[in-house]
User: Fold this.
Amino acid sequence: MTHPLIQISGLEKTFSSETGWFGQWHLPGFKGRGKTDQIYALNGVNLTIYQGETLCVVGETGCGKSTLARSIMGLDEPSAGEIHYLDQRIDHLNNRQRMLFRRRMQMVFQNPYASLNPRMTVYQTLSEPIAFHNPQLSRLDVDEQVETLLESVGISANSSDRYPHEFSGGQRQRISLARALSVEPEFIVADEPLSALDVSVQAQVLNLMMDKQEEYNLSYLFITHDLAVVEHFANRVAVMYLGRICELANTSTLFSAPKHPYTQALLSAIPRLDSTAADPIRLIGEVPTPTEKPIGCVFQARCPYANPRCYSESPEMRLQSDGSSVACHAIEESRL
Amino acid sequence: MNLLSVDHLNVNFHFKKRELTALIDVSFNLKRGERIAIVGESGAGKSILGFSIVNLIGKPGYIHSGAIKLENKDITKMSLRQLQDIRGKRIAMIFQDPMMTLNPVITIGDQLVETIRSHTKINYKDAKNIAIEKLRNVQIASPERRFDQYPHELSGGMRQRVIIASVLLLNPDIIIADEPTTALDVTIQAEILQLLLAICRDNGVALILISHDLGVVSKVAERTLVMYAGQIVEEGPTLEIINDPQPPYTQGLLNALPQMALPGQRLNQIKGSMPSLAERPSGCAFHPRCPYATDKCRTQQPEFIYSGVSSVACFMVEDMLSEFSQDDEGQL
Assistant:
């Protein structure tokens, strides 16, 4: 396999919010005495992303997928753990130091209606990062680059003076992708880039992302809850639940032989076209809000195979015979 | 007899300088207890069709011509008072985003009770009992406690359950569900779909499901209408349409699904995008994006014909059918 591009070890992120009447006042230089609520978004995530691969992170709302993405990009500062980009540690850089990495890693956001500045034309949106990161370029060179960039994502260059509201959702998402590509990054984090789009438009954007990967040897961290897209697009899949990764495997392995009980339930819930598919495995309840630091396995409350050990001891990721890694006591004890 | 029949419905939007057509000649029937789906891309007119069934099209839109008959009574000709009797009580609607549908400053219980009391003469206590019963029907745990909570205290899946409960309060004949699971996770989506299906089956309620996800549709609906640019292009049994789509548009919609391509291969996209109402192409509206378009498609509007599998408005299917029938005659 190729070299690891990003290595994440023991990543934790805790958000705290002050509750109560007192906590709602934000006075400068004054620390509220209200009770603080902690939200444990990430609880020790270990993950390696290799060069040129597409790693998909799947999981339900509130499992920490987006926090993971934002931590890698430096938009949220992790509470503990380390993130390495090639051989440099990047999780505690200041803005100035981070600038070097901003051009190597880029992000595409979920909602193309919100992530493009409505008061900037497409030309301004795309030329700003190019001119900023390449101060040596002349105005004409920047113009030329914007033009080729727009054409490469399938938008005609003569619409570069238009504003985002004049484009459709799929076109806007392609402009977002063009913006991410404008600084020629090595790594792109895409946080649910397709969820606001129709099936046919989804196909267009997904095709474009695959073309660009081939062209620039890009690595993707692709966050989604649409498993059909994952099956098609990913090389490897990480399944997340309540801030931890519970299964990590090659796409074909994961879809043919899901091991973790949560993965099994998740896969059975995909609405398939063929009517012969079995009924979905029903999970009781929904993802709980992680207001307490989880003790034991994070999935215990909804798992049909939980035993006393699952409530007390947190399972480690263990390598299985087919190359996947699973964190589950039931599998380790071959109860499953 | 048909519970609901929509007959040559045309919905227009009226602006100062121009008139735009949003729905053109839409006709379909719905039997008691039947579950149908309306699929298509954004802008196909799916939601407008849903709204016009309960006559909820707001200005500048209006129903230009055609009839929507609920057991022989024409909804398009009703007064506001008559409409209020039907909305919620006979035909109920579920919207996409449950947070937008529920009032954030009123408790769930009060919203449910209000719905009951505005349609029937029941005292608060009895209405509360009905509401709690319905909350229990949609599998909400400890409904007595939820009754006094506000919408923000519930998760997305839970809120959609509350909406379904509120729709069931008045035992409607038809539920129109406009993308009810788009905002939800896969696991929750599966649960909500099963719930909707069970409720419709058990109570004999007819369902009109509006969705762009053919996977979802295949789980729930018996019959499917495929819409493009304000027109129905195919109508038939869901399984037949999914297994053997006739017009190029339905084929394109199905082929664009990631399941339809080999992993890592390019997906089969439909080139171009849905035309806006103002730029409706002549002839068959799909012809600029259709790989099989001929001169006939560019100038003439295809009529609805029965292809043996489904009803289709497409010249290509029509030509193929006539070729087949000529072959048959030749053999005889």
